[in-house]
Amino acid sequence: MDEVAGRPKRGLIAWWHGSLNWPAFWASVMGATRVNCMIMLILAGASFMSTSMAYTGMPLALASWVDSLHLSPYALIAALNEARGDPGPRMVYADWLEERGDPRAGLLPVTA
Fold first, then answer.
1. How many angstroms separate the CA atoms of 87 and 109, rounded?
2. I need a labelling partner for 56 at 20 to 30 A (CA). Which of 10, 47, 48, 76 fits?
3. Is 93:100 a contact under the CB 8 Å cutoff?
4. How far apart are CA 102 and CA 112, in angstroms?
5. pLDDT tens, 26-85?
6. What is the pLDDT at residue 46?
7. DSSP for 39-98?
8. Long-range CB pairs of 62-68, under 8 A, 24+ apart, other chains included
9. What is the CB-side half-sphere exposure of residue 15 using CA atoms within 13 A?
């Protein structure tokens, strides 16, 4: 709590010593504004991606496919770690989608 109470004192000390002038204050405000805008854009992008992925139904299809494998949680983690850089599982999933006539099958080989 002392740190929060000390912030105005530091501002007054900076103003008193002449290091806090109008251009320095304005640069600080603009820097904080830019950082906040970047964070908001990241959050908006994440929200859009989450919504669009849910709209396509891909996460649900992938979850049901993984569930049909009947793996234990440890076996699933081991499989994911083993195939991290391998495009094979994505290609298998693309084939599975293509067998069912899903138009999303054409997107997976492009990203592989």
1. 9
2. 76
3. no
4. 18
5. 888 999 999 999 999 999 999 999 898 888 888 888 888 888 988 887 787 777 777 677
6. 93
7. HHHHHHHHHHHHHHHHHHTHHHHHHHHHHHTT--HHHHHHHHHHTSS-SHHHHHHHHHHH
8. 62/93, 65/93, 65/96
9. 8
For residue 95, which of 86, 84, 104 has the smallest C-alpha distance? 104
Give per-residue burial for 41-68: e unless 16+ CB within 10 Å, then b: eeeeeeeeeeeeeeeeebeebeeeeeee
Query: Six-digit token pair at 85?
Result: 């850089």
